[in-house]
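Why MOSC domain-containing protein YiiM? Reviewers of the renewal asked for a concrete example.
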Amino acid sequence: MTVRVVSVSASPSHAFSKAVRDEIRLIAGLGVEGDAHMGVHVKHRSRVAVDPTQPNLRQVHLVAAELLEELRAGGFHVSAGSIGENVTTEGIDLIHLPQGTCLHLGDVAVVQVTGLRNPCVQLDAFQKGLTAAVLDRDAEGRLVRKAGIMGIVVQGGPVRAGDPIRISLPPPPHRSLERV
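Here is what the prediction returned.
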């Protein structure tokens, strides 16, 4: 399977879903140009309420197209950008990448993976039962968060649907992703 960007999305407001765009521009150290979550410090409202000076480890939200397909098969009406992601990917098991992995999107942009998106009640407000649908248990009974991953922009540049993705793993030992 090809490892690529399927879709890109952004929203200037704190709306749950993000509008699909032809192109987004990533800005190093900040995030997606024109997106409500862009900035050096945390922009997610629940985190701002706790401490607005926290570093923004959630500048870019990535979701696998395979998750969206799984959700549609389960009866949910989802498409690219609908669960708030900026980049929809194909061919990558995002949630099992190690912390610190760099995703080279297109020719220039680089996003460093910081952690897992923690599913929240906004998912159920969008569609009843969606939160439970993006949570699972592994063989040992540990909680698996499937709602995508978060990252910071290491190198800026344009990102478009169809762009290839190259994966650079960090040096060992690898650390599993935790929620950020």
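Helices lie at 45-50, 65-73, 121-126, 130-133. This is the kind of structural detail the renewal will allow us to pursue systematically.
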